[in-house]
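Students often ask why we bother encoding 3D structure as a string. The short answer is that it lets us treat folding as translation between two languages. Here is a chain of 384 residues written in the first language.
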Amino acid sequence: MSKKIIRFGVIGCGLMGKEFASAAARWCHLNVDFEPKIVAVCDANPEAAKWFQEKVPSVVKATTDYKELLADPEIDAIYCAVPHNLHTQIYVDIIRAGKHLLGEKPFGIDKEANQIIVDEVAKHPDVLVRCSSEFPFYPGAYRLGQWIREGRFGTIMEVEAGFWHSSDLDPRKAINWKRRISTNGEYGCMGDLGMHVMHMPLRFGWKPSNVRSLLTKVVKERPDHTGNLVPCETWDNAILACEVKTEDQQFPMILSTKRIAPGHANTWFLRVTGTDFSAEFSTKNPKQIASLPYTPGSEQAWHITDVPYQSGYSTITGGIFEFGFSDSILQMWAAFCDEIVNRDAMQQPFRCATPEEALASHEVFTAALESERTGQTVTLSGRD
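And here it is in the second language, the structure alphabet:
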């Protein structure tokens, strides 16, 4: 099979940059006719790029100046994973340079910064810009999305979506950039985790019309690099009670993002309750999806099904094997590359998160901050 090669540069050589490189190395796992090749990397710390130079044979350039990647005609697309305060300038420069962009959430440190990125996207319609969000590509989540598209749920009564982990449960963990407003922004855990939570609801038109938030700082101080305790400025956990109003339905939706959720290593979940059908999926039990079909007068019984390995793109792996986080990253990258090559003729219908969805998430998080300050339910702009 002749494959279309997409030449990538990576800006930000930390954990997620390495995850992308590992996914690219497993591309033979997929049955597709396109392939990413990482040819250049950039990080402000030269030491961070050494891993790529040692582990990724296709890398021919490493630099501390990201503009060198943008000026290189041998690079088609960029994956960018940098702190939130750097998003606006770097993302805008990538888009202006005509490079396709898959950027990390939240696409700007705040709503104003995000709007600058969205405005630049509108000026360059030929450049594909998407936001990283891999969890909807788990087979169980992907199937739940298919059920939503098929309209199985009847009248939706309630939706709950969340992303919980416990990496910050230990108060001895040193403070980092995500605990500082100057680098992470006021959103705190919402900016860091919220796009994952909102990706699928927004994709299906479930944009909140109002928000009442409960935001908490669980660990208020952490040691710095010298061991002295310094303030944690950002929110650890957030619960957002929202109301969704579509053309034909109205229902409550609970969105939650938690950095401190004891017992949860990395749990993403979505639950949809309807009059005809209900379903839920959680990465806590990644092999299973639960569903409850209902017809009036019949018994009510949850069905627990082991879902096969298959996600959006077919692989060499048989259905009896288990799917994991690295597989979801591989599937997300496949969706991004598929859209670069085939645009509206993608091999499957689920796209990566769009700039418009990132903008909608900023509107929700900004309203959540206002709700926290006022103690009131906040109506989103342009909504009833």
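Translate back mentally: The mean pLDDT is 96. Keep this in mind for the problem set.
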